[in-house]
Amino acid sequence: MTAQPQADLTGRRVLIGVTGGIAAYKTATVVSRLSQRGCDVRVAMTEAATKFVTPLTFEALSGNPVVTGVWDHHDPGDVQHVNLADRVDLALVAPCTMDCLARLAHGHTSDPITLILSAIDRAKTPVLLSPSMNSVMLAQPSTQRNLAQLREDGYQILDAESGWQACRHVGPGRMPEPETLIEVVVEALLKR
Fold it and tell me: Please, how many CA atoms are within 13 Å of residue 190, restricted to the half-sphere of its CB?
């Protein structure tokens, strides 16, 4: 069986947002594989995400500085969140925690991910959210309201998978495997 040729993604600019969930370790593979395929991957992390995977990991895998605070400026005179928002072809938040969903749904911009996403024109640039949390948290009425609001606001919500969770529960709320996320990202990029 011969391998299928991979689409050329050279020069495609992708923002990966990483929030504070255990599934953050899977996102390292997404960043690595997209970088290997030629994407210019930029990573933004919440403070909680840095407790699961270090910024140095994502810097090494992407070859770019990682944004970990709302006041980070890697270029003098750069309005970081606006410039990143203007320069990406696609954004993916994986994992996207209950807290991040709530912040986005209610317009809070006190972390680097929500700040950057607030400056993206979703009519032109796809923003994909991959919810990942305990099944009870996912089922909460507030989470379901926030997901509905975010869909209405133009975010693309990826379905959480069902299965064993780090909290020792079994049910929906697992972040999809890296291969699935990469496939969705590539498909969205090729539609642009």
Answer: 10
Kindly report the pTM of this predicted structure: 0.90
Q: Is 55 part of a structural domain of the chain?
A: yes
User: Considering the domain boundaries, does residue 177 fall inside one?
Assistant: no
Is residue 65 included in any domain, yes or no?
Answer: yes
Distances (CA, A) of 75 to 15, 80, 184: 17, 8, 31
pLDDT tens, residue order, the chain (192 aa) = 545 567 789 999 999 999 999 999 999 999 999 999 999 999 999 999 999 999 999 999 999 999 997 766 555 555 555 778 888 999 999 999 999 999 999 999 999 999 999 999 998 999 999 999 999 899 999 999 999 999 999 999 999 977 767 767 776 778 999 999 999 999 999 987
Residue 50 in domain: yes
Active-site residue 167, yes or no? yes
Please give the structure tokens belonging to residue 99: 């807290």
Q: Is 97:19 a contact under the CB 8 Å cutoff?
A: yes
Range of the domain at 59: 10-110
CATH code of the domain covering residue 67 = 3.40.50.1950
Q: Which of 39, 96, 100, 167 is catalytic?
A: 167
Question: In total, how many domains does the chain have?
Answer: 1
